[in-house]
Structure of Histidinol-phosphatase:
Amino acid sequence: MPWSHHSHSGQFCGHAHDKLEDCVLAAIRKGMSTFCLTEHITRSNDDLYPEEVGRDDEATLAKLFDEFYREARRLQATYADHIEIFVGFEGEWIREASLTTIQRLLEKYELDLFVGSVHHVRTIPIDYDIAMYHDARSAAGGTDELIFEHYFDSQYAMLQALQPPVVGHFDLIRLKSDSPNGSFRAMSGVWDKAIRNLKYIAEYGGILELNSSSLRKGMVEAYPQVEMCQVFLELGGRFTLSDDSHGIDQVGLNYDRMFSCIEKAGIDKLWRLTRARPACPTDARFPEVEWHAESTSELRRHTFWTI
């Protein structure tokens, strides 16, 4: 039964590894019922990651996404009897022009979902390495508090412009900070902006992913922190599961530890994407799918936890 709504592969992502089909097969072996394929969107030549510089450009990344889409739909059909596969992308909000890029992808492809994420502040990556995080922090004013505020403002702009069905790693900004496991509450301006964003997500009906990737990177809680989850729960917000895997060794990784965060936050219901039933209300942008609730107690009894 467990699922992931956010994943990558080395076949279509320069900082991941393994073929996309092998990642799907890993999810099947682990007994996952739903696996969403969400490779990164095409970025401009100004926004290439270090491993892409000199190798890729905007045109080659666009071609790569075309190839990803065709392969993802093939895998969706090939393994339909074993697992529900959904096809989308992770939309990176870097600058105002990101809106046009994402809108073009939504117009060009028939998709099942997309994940709305922020990986940059002042157009500089904030989760790639410490050096880049420090560059972004300097550009934002020189302190963690200031870059946190910039991050949540960028995220709010993304949320308002796109209303993504899934919001990715809500508090990613803490990963490379001086206190990655610290609380935002001590920074009143940061806390207020984070709560503003959570309120907006709850209002439009977005799904907040519980993302286990922070745990493999040395953090003690999943994204978002338990205190953020508790606020979102009080707002009536909905949660789903994601591993943000970048290869077969990360599929479903640390879900047991993430479940401890779920229990600590008091979350008793999680949502997964499924095929839409006739006459069932859906997001008009994605009429073929709908969100279905599962109790955490039922989820915990699944054989996934013993495999």
In short: The mean pLDDT is 94.
